[in-house]
Amino acid sequence: MSEENKTLITPPFNELDQENKLVALAYAQAERELEEGTASSQIVTHFLKLGTQRAELEAAQIKLQNTLLEEKIIAERESQKISDAVSEVLLALRSYIYVPPGATDDHIL
């Protein structure tokens, strides 16, 4: 690296920062080599595999999201069925309540 291309980079605070710095530098170098057409077959293969793995993970994520959505729809339907059943039970129970003569429905349930 020439003197004019060097930039001041602060030293890492811990091992994770050091690793992140090295990964970023490696990616930058790989990007330059890919753009210049000088990248080795290992670098090209690495990024092709990353693309494939990413596509597989995205497809799996979409499948899981669809499954979750289907489960939410089923749960909502079940919840509605329960709510309807409770309403029916309450309505049926009203028929068993004794209403004294002259009383109104406002005082029942």
Task: Please give a structural write-up.
- With 109 residues, the protein is mostly helical.
- It has two helices and no strands.
- It is elongated and about 95 Å long.
- The termini are far apart.
- The model has no long low-confidence stretch (mean pLDDT 86).
Rg on CA atoms, Å: 33 Å
- What share of residues is helical? 55-70%
Contiguous helical run count: 2
Alpha-beta content class: mainly alpha
The secondary-structure element order is HH
Provide mean pLDDT, rounded: 86
In terms of DSSP E residues, the strand content is: under 5%
Q: Categorize the overall geometry.
A: elongated
Q: Give the low-confidence spans.
A: none
For this structure, the quaternary state is single chain
Span between termini: 84 Å
Largest sheet: none
SS elements, strand count: 0
Q: What layout of secondary structure does this protein have?
A:
Blueprint: H1 15-36, H2 41-94
